[in-house]
């Protein structure tokens, strides 16, 4: 160990009179507390995702401990660290959590680029990083190590479920995605998933994450698609603000026979879906879709506490919280090797139903949901009405770390 420690201390700590103040919550801790670090992008363009993820994590810990926030009599202490969506800060924050705060494991981050930077830190400190909600395949693929587990869905799960929803013989598809790991991995997985459907990916467009004006990108897409035969889709893969769907829809892609399609998103982003009745895609979560006891509790409690339903990433955070508690209970230990042995192949219940950590890459296999947008004038967003639940058995998710 030690490669990341100096960077961590330089970036994140200030020592005053022998008292070290880090990037997390400064609270007194007992020697036998179970310290869990939530290392995630609390500030920046994915702040809404981060807030949901943390709310879900805390509700998951609460649910799994029957409200005690204890495991076998030991108090759970959650410390928060802000990556600011910057890989170097994420790396330093995780090193501080493991090296100075004695966190037994960490959850996070939001950004795929930050997660890829944090993965080697988990390996160096030999402690688990439970990735939630970063999506890129490479996190549990080529950049994976044995200390990485993920409750969040990966790009392949997004891609395969959306390929099932859109892919049919003769269909032509263009993609628009952000030019970083999330977008690139998402398009690569989607392209591969389409091969068995008879559909064809004919054009790929990538733009910076902070793009505001999509006119030039839309024109390139329309030029590539206008002379294509058959049913035509523009499939958008996007995270955070500046979602281009509304802006591109305003350019009237129907002039060229192009329909917009995308996966699920947070409720605020799905307001744009009201202009797209009948649009099909696949989503990770929508609060009205899963029918199980845990989701019933989440919806009821979230509505009572926050006067709104749980959102896309709230469910993911809750799944992570439940997984942490179940792993520690079943292992009877917070030792990393005991946790790894327990978590490989572990099945656990979540707001989405059953998840299972695949032993080969520690990716949580889980259901996805094929939807069709329904518009209700009394609801602010387009409602993703369930067409079909795609279960673990319905999707052959590639193992990409071999």
TrEMBL record:
Any Gene Ontology biological process: amino acid transport
All copies of domain Leucine-binding protein, residue ranges: 34-374
UniProt keyword annotations, A-Z: Amino-acid transport, Signal, Transport
Highest taxon, organism lineage: Bacteria
Family membership: Belongs to the leucine-binding protein family.
Name of the protein in its database record: Substrate-binding domain-containing protein
Species whose genome carries this gene: Microbaculum marinisediminis
